[in-house]
Structures are given as structure tokens and as C-alpha cells.
Amino acid sequence: MARTQGTGSGTGEDRSLAGLVGRAFGRLGRAGGLVFLLAGLALSGFGAHEGAYAAGWAGTHGTLTVQQCEVSYPNNASRSSRKNRRPVRCEGTFVSENGSSTDASAAVQVRQRYAQGTELSVQQTEPATADDATDADYVQSGMDRAWRWFGAFFGGWVLTGLGVFCLATGFAPFGQSRISFDAAWEAARRGVTRPAVIGMIGVGLVGAGVSFLVSYFV
Questions:
Q1: Model pTM?
Q2: Residues near 44 by Cβ (< 8 Å), separated by ≥ 6?
Q3: What is the pLDDT of residues 121-158, one digit of tens each?
Q4: Which of 217, 209, 91 is nearest to 153 (CA)?
Q5: What is the Cα–Cα distance from 211 to 197, expressed in whole angstroms?
Q6: Judging by beta carbons within 10 Å of its beta carbon (0-12, 13-18, 19+), is residue 65 exposed, middle or buried?
Q7: Cα distances (angstroms) measured from residue 177 to each of 15, 91, 145
Q8: Backbone angles phi, psi at 74, to 5 degrees
Q9: pLDDT of 68-86, one tens digit each?
Q10: 67 phi, psi to nearest 5 deg
């Protein structure tokens, strides 16, 4: 009898522990879903913002005539990162497309050096705070860059769809999950969760693929 009681007690403790672990993994899945959701929304928002400026849909379009370009590496940059990324700052004179504004102290971050006198197509994202100020912001414009940013915008949809799925079902896409993928996918049939997830991930994958493909031909 003592052995039977001990076994029953052990089984109860095991079940209690399993329940605690299951609830912990459920919360982990939803926490991970929230991270994916926020990351997806941030990526889509940033991609749309930068893409609009690169395409010339926002800001003031104009030309920056290069006076000099300098490469400045961060002090803590590794040798490999210095080789693969060249943060180049080109300075010169900006003239808006309609000729209504100029900035003799304009500067833009680019990926390569340009010779003095080169005219760069740029977008003024923020004007100077005063006539004699040098704090205006510029980005290099071009549809190839714009389409790459649009690819990032659609890529954010994939993360957002995954986040919605995890939040709605508690499925954790990393490590051990309390809920199997099959069970989570079956639970997603209720309501609009499954169509929404399929729509967001599908549009995201297709949109990102098409955007990056188009960027190589424009």
C-alpha cells in the first residue's frame, strides 16, 4: 500500500510538473509570436519609409554634385566587416530639381566612392533647420534601391504572419513547443486566423521575391 501511495504521489507531481512546463511553453510561443509580430511591423514600416524616399515619392528630389568622398570605418569594426561594408560619405552641393533650394554643405551616405564632379540623384528627407545650418538629411535615390527596400517591406509581412499564427495558437517555432504544428494549424481553422496567416505569408514571399528580382533589371 505504501508503494502504491508513493507511486500515486509521484504521478501527481509529474502531472503537475508537466502542466507547469506546458503552460510555460505556451507563454513562450505567444511571447515569440509577439516578437515576430513587432519585428515584422517594424521591418515593413522601415522598408516602406526608405523605399518611398529612394523612389522619389517623398521628400525633395535633386542632384548632389560631389566635392569629396571619405571612407570612415567605426573604431570597433572587424576586418571582415570593413571588407564587406564600406560606409562612404560624399559631400557636395545639393540643388533641388525645381531649383528652388540649394545646400552647399550637403552630405549623403553611399556604398562606393565617386569622383569629384559626379552628380548623384538624391532625395532630401529632412530640410535644414535654418538657412545657415548643415543638418539636412539626404539619401541616394534610384528605383533599384527602392525595389530592394520594397522587398524588405514585403519580407516583414512574412514575420508578421508568423507572429499572428504563434500568438493565436501558442505554437513556438523554436525549441520544444507545447503544441505541435499540426494541432496549431488545425486550431487556426477557427475564425480568420488561417486565411490571414496564409495571405500575409504568401503575399510577403511573392512580393519580396518579385521586388528583389525587379531590382536587378531596373
A1: 0.73
A2: 152, 153, 154, 155, 156, 157, 160
A3: 999 998 888 777 778 999 999 999 999 999 999 999 99
A4: 209
A5: 21
A6: middle
A7: 17, 53, 39
A8: -60, 150
A9: 999 876 555 554 444 445 5
A10: -100, -40
